[in-house]
Amino acid sequence: MTVEPVNVAEYERLAAERLEPGSLGYFAGAAGDERTLRANVEAFARWHLRPRVLVDVSAASAATTVLGTPVSMPVLVAPVALQRMLHPDGEAAMARAAAAAGTIMTLSTIATTRPSEVAAAAPGAPRWFQVYVLKDRGVTRALIDEAIDHGFSALVVTVDAPRAGRRERDLRTGFAVPPGIDMPAVRAATGSQGPVTPQEFFALVDPSLTWEGFERIAADSPVPVLLKGVLTAEDARHACDSGAAGLVVSNHGGRQLDGVAASLDALPEVVDAVGGRLEVLVDGGVRRGTDVLVALALGARAVLVGRPPMWGLAAGGEAGARRVLELLRDEVELALALLGAPSPRDIGGDHVAHASG
Ligand SMILES: Cc1cc2nc3c(=O)[nH]c(=O)nc-3n(C[C@H](O)[C@H](O)[C@H](O)COP(=O)(O)O)c2cc1C
C-alpha cells in the first residue's frame, strides 16, 4: 500500500528518494556551511502563537489579496530555477498546480520553459515573472516583454545574486544542466545550449546593477515591480523611494550569503522601516501553515514557498505540487480557526510572542 504524504516534510523525503544526487543537491542545498538554510527553518520555532477563544470561526478562510490580486491563501510559489530537472512537465505543471490551488506562481528567469508556454499551460491564472538583470540588457528586455505580453502581472527583480553563492553540494557532484534541457534565457544570452552550471549562469547576471538601474526598470514597467532579496531596514527604506510596489524579505533560501539572518528574523526591521508604504512578503523556511501565521503576525502580507512545491513536483508531478499547496492551504485555514482569526486580515502582532518570554 502506498501512503500519500500528509505534510511537506514527508514530500521532501519522497522527493529525496526519487531525485538523483546531483539534482537533489542542487534543490536541497545552499551556500557555505548552510547555516542560513537551517536558520530559516529554525527561526519559526522561536515564536509561540497566542490564540483567542470564543471567536466565530465558522467561515474561517485563508483567502486574501496580494498587490490587489485575489489568492486562496497568503502563500505564493517562489521563483525556482530548472523545474524540468525535477519532473519532465517542469514549470508548466507547476503553473497548473498553482492555478488549481488558487495562488500565484512566480516564473524564474532560469526557467526551463518559456513564459509563453507557462501562460498557455494555465491561461487565466495569476502569474508573476522573476527577473535577473543580465549584462545583456537586450535579452533581459526581451524576456520581460515576452512575460508581460503573456499576462504576467508583476515583475520580481531579484537583487541578492550579483554572483552565485558558494554551493558546495554542487561543487561536489559537479552539477550541470544537461544539454537536453532548454533554458531559453541562457540560450538567448549565450547563443548556445551546452551544459550549464549555476556558476556559468550567474556569470551572465550584471554585478554592476545599482539602485538607479532598479529605479529605471521600475519606472519603465507597465506592471508592478517587487524587489526580492532585501534583509535590512536600510535597503527597505531605499526601496520605498525606488518605485517598487513590494518587497520580498529573502536570503534566497540560504543559497547566497551564508551567515545572514533567517528571513523571519529580518522581517520585523523591514516591516518597521517600510511603515506600511509597500506590501512586504517573506520567503525562506516556511514548511507549515503555522509558519505562515507567524510571518503574517510579524507584518508580512504573504509568504512565498520555494522548495516545498518542488518536492511535490519531484514526487508526483503536477498532482504532487498541487497537493503540497493544498496541504499548506488547509493547514493555514485550520490554524486561523484555532487561532481565533477568521481571516489573514485579522492577524496582528499580538497573535505571537517570542518563545523565550
Ligand atoms: C533550487 C532553487 C532554485 C532557486 N532559483 C531561484 C531563481 O531562479 N530566482 C530567484 O529569485 N530565486 C530562486 N531561488 C530562491 C527562492 O525563490 C526562494 O527565495 C527560496 O527558495 C525560499 O526558501 P525555501 O526554499 O526555504 O522556501 C531558488 C531556490 C532554490 C531552492
Secondary structure topology:
Blueprint: H1 8-18, H2 21-28, H3 35-42, E1 47-49, E2 64-66, E3 69-71, E4 75-77, H4 90-101, E5 105-107, H5 115-121, E6 127-131, H6 137-149, E7 155-158, H7 168-173, H8 184-190, H9 198-202, H10 211-220, E8 225-230, H11 233-240, E9 246-249, H12 263-274, E10 279-283, H13 289-297, E11 302-305, H14 307-339, E12 352-354
Parallel strand pairs: 4-11, 5-6, 6-7, 7-8, 8-9, 9-10, 10-11
Antiparallel strand pairs: 1-12, 2-3
Flavin mononucleotide (FMN) is lined by residues 26-27, 40, 78-81, 108, 110, 130, 158, 228, 250, 252-253, 255, 283-286, 305-307.
Number of helices: 14
* Beta-strand segment tally: 12
Percent in strands: 5-15%
The class by helix and strand makeup works out as alpha/beta
List of distinct ligands in this structure: flavin mononucleotide
| Quaternary state of the chains | single chain
Sheet with most strands: 8 strands, parallel
Q: Helical content, roughly?
A: 40-55%
Short synopsis of the structure:
By secondary structure, the protein is of the alpha/beta class.
